[in-house]
Design the sequence.
């Protein structure tokens, strides 16, 4: 039946050729004896009339074993961007935590410095007050200066008594008594004076 077909007749129109590839699979190709070189399918004698259309992008993409589906590439890029963003966020958080710790330390140091300054100021003030309290008013010749020092002594004594009442500290006269109670010679082997 096929021999009656005009393509298989010896009129020079088309001939069937048998090819085998290295894997051992045989196939039949039809080629024309009258080659038309203007036709894209006739330009090469090895191309069959049923060759692939190279302009069809969907066959090219899906037929290539090395290409990935578009969704996989997009999801991989999205995952990479998310990972980079998370990395930047984590770096910023670590930097913020370190900065916060440094601020906390410097704040604590500043508070300690302020406490020390207050204590130094209070100590200097107490030294000046003690100088005034232990000043001999009889040695002052001018009555106005003497009155000023008497008023300052009264103010200092009133301030200290008020501080002692607020802090519930025993008065100064008895505060050292607990440490030096045996100065009179009772048990200290010191002679009485």
Sequence:
């Amino acid at each position: 039946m096929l021999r009656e077909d005009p393509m298989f007749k010896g009129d020079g129109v088309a001939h069937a050729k048998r090819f085998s590839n290295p894997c051992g699979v045989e196939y039949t190709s039809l080629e024309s004896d009258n080659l038309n070189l203007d036709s894209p399918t006739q330009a090469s004698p090895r191309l069959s009339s049923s060759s692939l259309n190279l302009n069809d992008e969907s066959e090219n993409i899906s037929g290539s074993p090395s290409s990935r589906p578009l969704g996989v590439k997009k999801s991989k890029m999205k995952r990479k961007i998310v990972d980079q963003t998370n990395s930047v966020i984590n770096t910023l958080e670590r930097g913020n935590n370190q900065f916060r710790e440094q601020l906390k330390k410097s704040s604590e140091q500043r508070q300690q410095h302020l406490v020390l300054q207050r204590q130094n100021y209070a100590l200097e003030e107490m030294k000046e007050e003690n100088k005034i309290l232990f000043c001999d008013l009889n040695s002052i010749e001018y009555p106005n200066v003497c009155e000023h020092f008497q008023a300052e002594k009264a103010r200092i004594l009133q301030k200290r008594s008020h501080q002692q009442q607020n802090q519930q500290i025993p008065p100064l006269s008895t505060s050292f008594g607990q440490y030096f109670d045996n100065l009179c010679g009772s048990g200290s082997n010191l002679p009485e004076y």
